[in-house]
Amino acid sequence: MTGEAERSEQGGDELAPEEHAATDGGTDHPVESPLVEHARPTGGDAPETGLAGPHPEERPHPSGRRDEHGVRKEPDHGPEPTRRATVSALVEDEPGVLARAAGLFRRRQFNIESLTVGPTTVEGHSRITLVVEETEAGIEQAKKQLAKLTPVIAVGELSNDAVAAELVLLKVRGKDPDKVHAITSMYDGQTLDAGPRTITVQITGDENTIDDAIDAFDQFGIIEIARTGQTALERGDSPTTPGEEPGHSADSTDDEFTNYDD
Amino acid sequence: MSEPATPDAASPDEGDDEGRTDRADQPERTDDDAAAAREEAATRAPGSGANAVVAALEAAGVETAFGVQGGAIMPVYDALSASTVDHVTMAHEQGAVHAADAYGVVRGDPGVCMATSGPGATNLVTGIADASMDSDAMLALTGQVPSDMVGSDAFQETDTVGVTAPITKHNYFANDSDEVGQTVGEAFALANTGRPGPTLVDLPKDITFGETDRPVGEPTAPDRAVPDLEADEEQVEAAAAAIEAADRPLCLFGGGVIKGDATEQARAFAREFEIPVVTTMPGIGSFPEDDDLCLSWAGMHGTGYANMAITHTDCLIAVGTRFDDRLTGGVDTFAPEAEVVHVDIDPAEISKNVHADYPVIGDAATVLDQLDAAIGYGDAPDTESWCTQCDEWREQYPMDYAIDPDEPVKPQFVVEAFDAAMDDDTYVTTGVGQHQMWAAQYWTYREPRTFVSSHGLGTMGYGLPAAIGARVAADDDREVISFEGDGSFLMTIQELSVAVREDLDITVVVLNNEYIGMVRQWQDAFFEGNHMASQYDWMPEFDTLAEAFGAKGFRIDEYDDVESVVEEALAYDGPSVVDAHIDPEENVYPMVASGAANGQFALAEDQL
């Protein structure tokens, strides 16, 4: 510990060494007056205002930098790319859980594209599915912050080959029912209501399909539109959120679901 | 309502509300007595929802709650009167929440505050947000209008759960008298599980009035909220290897070291491997500031040497810190050469603000022991020349100030004079502003939990109610001092009435410059000296005001006053207020401008 001994000789507190020796002293209540200990002529080592020491520009400063996520980088580093992620959260179905999740995304400024929620087959559990457009670091943060909410049981990000779908209801002008029907059929949709003035159809599919369908129906004049946002499940034998249990009706066949918790 | 349960015989005097101002007379409860009392509270049939709430507090071992009465919380207060839980009536709910916060900081257990619905609850909001930002364990209980009136905009109705959701770890709306006690216990336990934080239970009046005989049970946090204390061994090995490979390692100890009761491990770790230490502001006290390895705290007004060390380290061992912007300055220039080892109990803090090259998720004390064991004997880096460099910075950038006996008193001098006269383990509370920075810079902290301040939220007015909470929480032989600014003190000055009523031995030192001083300093630096709304044309005489409250008032106008005032104020057994008229133009330096590089801290205004 020779290094320690050397350092201690050099003093080592925020006070100047000679002051420090006087104030510290090792006793709780020094008998000497603090004024006597501290009084010294105007100026001393300190300037009239501010502190003594080398000017900022005289100090060496490393040339390295970090990006907006605090990652060390090369100086010519460009802006971080964003990507779209579908995040699924299994939650306790209690009042306010949706508001908590939505409020979290709002206040932390995560860019959210859609949010859907609905019950699962497990009583008291719901699934929230969120689509976010964020940088890699932003997606990680969003998942971790979501997982911190007390009613959130598990959070998972869906893989690229997950099954995803959303539903749209389109109310269009009813002047050309045959054509509307034809396009509805092309998108495997259903006609829910047909009247002399309006026709309402339902289309389901992934986001691109829905976007295309809306384009196709635009020719008739879309009066109203209601779109659910994307919901999704992991494909095959993979749980959608980590540690997820299979639903009750699947319990008897759980030997096939080795990736799920029992 | 059924008859409230009587306190356990094991604690004969604690339930006696009368004469509780003299806390020193209370008999010491043994651990066995306390455990028996908690067990009894957990298993008794409470009778009512309100009694269940109180039983839950007793089962959690709560000794004191801070609060203000009001319509919707009255059933709980009524039940509290027969409880072993002591209650300190504060002047304002903001006082209650800050007192509870500071009580929790000092004790390490959640502080408890209570308020009624509507304005009572909204007056808690600032303090709950404060506790949230500083990860302080705290439980808030709020009254609420009866369940059937919720949503009707009833008298004193506020959506307390909605308002406080973003600033609590979790909050609860009690909707069943049978479950309310267990809910309060869960909220208490959750507040101090894993990363601490405030929780709240909203208590509709019909729920607390409602009958129940269901025992509240042991306070238990939800399983999911209980994190693994031990870190993944691979993470530890990788971090240890990074530390072994470093030439200029630096420990950065945050508030998590103190909250995780890891100061012993932190001190042992830094000393064993002779690694210099800087702390964050909430981390003050985690490492003794008079230790040769300690460079004091880093950040906006941290020491020059701490900021130089952060700028030049090649391996930053950050424990229990969230890399607040007041610490990092501009993230682009923060520790630009450092591989970052980040130890935290909260995975969401990893790479939130600063990318962690070596994340280690776990409890600070446990992980520091793991790291200690993982760094091979003889593999620790040789830090001798790095330590010498740090010492050179210490000499180059001394924390210093000039004294002219004919000029107004320097605030730093007042802080140092009290430090010299008080015990090493004194609790120091502060408001927010210049005085807070001087209290942080010029007091030498040696022990954890002794610097009790509003860090993340920066709440002016925190100091006095915090001193009340700290005084109630602290052992009798520990001293409590509060540094306040004139602006900060005026925000919660009404709590002086509580300190007098409860006969609390605290010393409030108002560093009075008749400015909102930090704003004035920024206006001088960045707004061409336009002192809009920062300069007071009139300030009350705080020493006289203190006397009107029933406290003892002192005044400092010049250096010759300091010694005698320090002596008399500390000798006074009760609340005293020192109105210290300081140099109004004194500024806080060093200063890292917002978003600037830590290593480019200014030593004077013309360097900003």
From TrEMBL, chain A:
Transmembrane segments: none annotated. Residues 86-160 form the ACT domain. Residues 1-10, 17-40, 55-83 have a biased composition (Basic and acidic residues). Keywords: Amino-acid biosynthesis, Branched-chain amino acid biosynthesis. CDD domains: ACT_AHAS. Pfam families: ACT_AHAS_ss, ALS_ss_C. InterPro entries: Acetalactate_synth_ssu, Acetolactate_synth/TF_NikR_C, Acetolactate_synth_ssu_C, ACT-like_dom_sf, ACT_dom, AHAS_ACT, AHAS_small-like_ACT. Residues 252-262 have a biased composition (Acidic residues). It comes from the Archaea. Pathway: Amino-acid biosynthesis; L-valine biosynthesis; L-valine from pyruvate: step 1/4; Amino-acid biosynthesis; L-isoleucine biosynthesis; L-isoleucine from 2-oxobutanoate: step 1/4. GO terms for cellular component: cytosol. The keyword Amino-acid biosynthesis applies. Signal peptide: none annotated. Residues 1-85, 228-262 are annotated as: Disordered. NCBIfam families: acolac_sm, PRK11895.1. Belongs to the acetolactate synthase small subunit family. GO terms for biological process: isoleucine biosynthetic process; L-valine biosynthetic process. GO terms for molecular function: acetolactate synthase activity; acetolactate synthase regulator activity. This is Acetolactate synthase, small subunit.
From TrEMBL, chain B:
Residues 1-49 are annotated as: Disordered. It catalyses: 2 pyruvate + H(+) = (2S)-2-acetolactate + CO2. It is an enzyme of class 2 (transferase). Residues 49-161 form the Thiamine pyrophosphate enzyme N-terminal TPP-binding domain. This is Acetolactate synthase. Binds 1 thiamine pyrophosphate per subunit. Binds 1 Mg(2+) ion per subunit. One of its GO terms (molecular function) is thiamine pyrophosphate binding. GO terms for biological process: isoleucine biosynthetic process; L-valine biosynthetic process; sulfur compound biosynthetic process. Keywords: Amino-acid biosynthesis, Branched-chain amino acid biosynthesis, Magnesium, Metal-binding, Thiamine pyrophosphate, Transferase. Coiled coil: none annotated.
